[in-house]
């Protein structure tokens, strides 16, 4: 079986980036190591850092971010919303600058501009037919960006949201027939009725007429994944981490939902809970009769795939129609997966990474029969966010490439051969020093990014000038 090994070392003043990968033949997976060391490495991780620090550090961060939020409000950012999030941004100052930036990549220069600032840990975005965007903020606000201007009035009302640690208002998607029915969908962390910490993940929908008011708000799905609070079983990190979650409508008109295992690994292989699964439902939350586990004893019928840790990216390939997902691993073992109905992706029985204390995951096997291998995996972690497959006209050299937001302060570009096997990788935009949560291809062919920062921003990538 042919193999290719490449190592690239880049020295950048106070940072050292090592990127290497090994590409295997058809059906194999690609291992990549990506070490990002600089003067601020404690903010390079998301789930990993939270799990290892414990609640004392989280409480200190909450106070710091509350102070940062006050400064942001004083600058004109909206104070309205359902809650305050405990973000993992770099600090209580804007570290981005105003741009624009002209940066080199392996396929030519790119021009990066700020579309808008004033966003607190923006998480997901959806393009509207007129080119405007809806953007979610994790602390619990839904925002409109029109003609490059952030509307100062958040859109609402929203349901009650548990905005704590990594929980909050997460992804957003438009109904495939949005122009007719005006339906928007969003996924969020839902507090428990009696004990707020005993939270789960839920999906709601509402009609939006273009103003600041939603109508017909209704919950369409509440995950059977309540976890947290006094007496909850102890996992590998705080229960307000590893929620997932992403939304994607398929060409079949069905809604796909990625859910994390809330740092309680046993749930990923338990078919009686939605945690650690990718789900498939109709647009009203009901179960399609052809879901892979419908009628199977002990399995929740919404389950499409299982064995996931924290899938933070979910997208359909615009050409092949395949469903792809990115997933946080433990210490190392972050993954890119091709999602197929009924398959088991291995967590917590197999992993390319290790536990936070260095002990093996499961029995230490990286692969086993009956479990799907990732198409790509990264050791150490790259902290993957959302992904897009570029098929636009603005960047001909990127056509067919995957672009992945990464909270290790980079955008990763991966190439594939005609059989869909990965052939190379490049980390881009490292010069900006930002944690990237979401990436989308816009209807104009440009690439749009959300920075996962207390002083977050929406950025646009254009061809170099």
Would you give an account of this structure?
The protein has 465 residues and is mainly beta. It has a single domain (4-463), classed as Neuraminidase (6 Propeller), CATH 2.120.10. It has three helices and 28 strands. Mean pLDDT is 85; it is low at 1-30 and 32-91.
**Low-confidence residue ranges:** 1-30, 32-91
Question: How many structural units, i.e. domains?
Answer: 1
CATH architecture annotation name: 6 Propeller
CATH-assigned fold name: Neuraminidase
- Class of secondary structure makeup: mainly beta
Outline: globular
Beta-strand content estimate: 35-45%
Please provide the count of β strands: 28
CATH homologous superfamily placement: TolB, C-terminal domain
DSSP helical segment count: 3
Question: How do the strands line up in the largest sheet?
Answer: 1-2-3-21-20-19-18
How confident overall, as mean pLDDT? 85
Just give the CATH class.
Mainly Beta
Q: Estimate percent helicity.
A: under 10%
How would you describe this structure in keywords?
7-stranded mixed β-sheet, 38% strand, mainly beta, single chain, disordered N terminus, 465 residues, Neuraminidase, 5-stranded antiparallel β-sheet
Helix/strand layout:
Elements: E1 4-12, E2 15-23, E3 30-37, H1 47-53, H2 55-74, E4 101-103, E5 110-119, E6 122-127, E7 133-137, E8 141-146, E9 149-150, E10 169-174, H3 178-181, E11 183-190, E12 200-208, E13 214-222, E14 244-249, E15 255-259, E16 277-281, E17 303-306, E18 310-316, E19 323-328, E20 334-339, E21 376-378, E22 384-389, E23 402-406, E24 410-416, E25 422-428, E26 436-441, E27 447-451, E28 456-463
Parallel strand pairs: 3-21
Antiparallel strand pairs: 1-2, 2-3, 4-5, 5-28, 6-7, 7-8, 8-9, 10-11, 11-12, 12-13, 14-15, 15-16, 16-17, 18-19, 19-20, 20-21, 22-23, 23-24, 24-25, 26-27, 27-28
